[in-house]
Amino acid sequence: VGMAALLMRTPKMLEFAKFTVNKRYRGKGLGNRILAFCETEARLRGAKELMLETNSRLAAANSVYKKAGFRKVRASSEYSRADLTMIKKL
Fold it and tell me: How distant, in Å, are the alpha carbons of 12, 21, 27 from that of 63?
């Protein structure tokens, strides 16, 4: 019903990527649980920061990120579908 990936950017920074929750299951807290699991896994791997790249039009996802403590670092991305980069200190 949901998924995410962790990609190594540097030994101390992982990227939270490929995040989605099936439309039928949204609004039930699953996204928060997936994100929390990934944050724990990133810490276990020795990461000090978790970053993500998103699109500013994804209001629901961006709300989850902001509530989880992610902060905007730049209004750009290396991905064509993203226009916003966010980082969370772990």
Answer: 25, 14, 12
- Relative to beta strand 49-54, strand 71-74 is unpaired
How many angstroms separate the CA atoms of 72 and 45, rounded? 23
SS3 11: coil
Phi, psi angle pair for 3, to nearest 5°: -160, 165
Task: Kindly give the confidence (pLDDT) of every residue in the chain, 90 residues in length, as a single tens digit, with 9 standing for 90 and above.
Answer: 999 999 999 999 999 999 999 999 999 999 999 999 999 999 999 999 999 999 999 998 899 899 999 999 987 777 788 999 999 999
Helices (H) and strands (E) in the chain, counts: 2, 5
User: Are 74 and 85 contacting, i.e. CB atoms less than 8 angstroms apart?
Assistant: yes
